[in-house]
């Protein structure tokens, strides 16, 4: 007797396919879970990594100090001197070139034809900012500051010069402009000296131009007092305001 091969029915084929698909899906889910477990890191480790990143971002970058030897080219500055400051420049020349040559180790010369003071770095110059400090010192003297006051720019780093015109505060002409400048100066310079002593600054009145030498905060206080005088405030009111502001500044420090 010949036996016919039995062929699986449609339902059996569907069952076999469904079992194979379920097994494949389970294998895929297991492999995906393993990959996720391998990629995942503990929460504590993630927190430590984030803390390290935050600490690295908060750290200040440290740079090596730049010396004049790093710049191969020589630096030169030329400061123009006004006509009215040529005579004081010649009379105070020794007091000007001594701190520049001895302390900053710069070369300096006065060119009377072009009315300029020329500064040049040398091999003995150590600080990279020496040429700029020397230029600021000569520029301060050219504006009208005394040599002893301008030397402070070489010794301290937080001193600046602020310049402005009287007409920048209020447009004045003729006698009104002269009276405004007189209010700033005061009788025999009394008002100007008071502002300088209270704010620890130095003030130069050059016609309509006003120059203030000092720290940033003190310059702001002195400038506010001068602007009040230009607008027309009485000196007594300005003195009272200066007293209160100076006391607040002293309390902060």
From TrEMBL:
InterPro entries (alphabetical): KH-I_PNO1_first, KH_dom, KH_dom_type_1_sf, KH_PNO1_2nd
PANTHER family: RIBONUCLEASE Y (PTHR12826), RNA-BINDING PROTEIN PNO1 (PTHR12826:SF13)
Pfam families: KH_PNO1_2nd
Family stated for the protein in its record: Belongs to the PNO1 family.
UniProt keyword Metal-binding, yes or no: no
The K Homology domain, residue ranges: 163-231
Biased composition (Polar residues): 1-10
Presence of the UniProt keyword Nucleus in the record: yes
GO cellular component, one term: nucleolus
Ranges where the record places region Disordered: 1-69
CDD domains xref list: KH-I_PNO1_rpt1, KH-I_PNO1_rpt2
Subcellular localization(s) per the UniProt record: Nucleus, Nucleolus
The protein's name: K Homology domain-containing protein
SMART domains, per the entry: KH
GO molecular function: RNA binding
Domain of life: Eukaryota
């Amino acid at each position: 007797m010949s036996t016919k091969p039995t062929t699986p029915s449609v339902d059996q084929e569907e069952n076999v396919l469904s079992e194979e698909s379920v097994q494949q899906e389970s294998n895929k889910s297991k492999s995906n879970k393993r990959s996720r477990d391998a990629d995942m890191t503990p929460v504590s480790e993630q927190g430590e990594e984030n803390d390290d990143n935050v600490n690295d971002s908060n750290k200040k970058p440290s740079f090596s100090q730049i010396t004049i030897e790093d710049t191969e080219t020589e630096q030169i500055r030329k400061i123009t001197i006004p006509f009215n400051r040529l005579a004081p420049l010649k009379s105070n020349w020794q007091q000007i070139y001594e701190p520049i040559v001895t302390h900053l180790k710069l070369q300096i010369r006065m060119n009377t034809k072009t009315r300029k003071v020329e500064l040049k770095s040398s091999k003995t110059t150590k600080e990279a900012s020496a040429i700029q400090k020397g230029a600021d010192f000569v520029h301060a003297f050219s504006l009208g500051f005394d040599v002893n006051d301008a030397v402070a720019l070489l010794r301290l780093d937080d001193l600046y010069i602020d310049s402005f015109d009287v007409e920048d505060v209020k447009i004045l002409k003729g006698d009104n402009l002269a009276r405004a400048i007189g209010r700033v100066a005061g009788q025999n310079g009394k008002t100007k000296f008071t502002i300088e002593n209270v704010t620890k600054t130095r003030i130069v009145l050059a016609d309509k131009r006003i120059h203030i030498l000092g720290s940033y905060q003190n310059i702001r206080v002195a400038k506010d007092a001068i602007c009040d005088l230009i607008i027309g405030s009485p000196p007594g009111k300005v003195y009272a305001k200066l007293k209160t502001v100076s006391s607040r500044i002293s309390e902060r420090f």
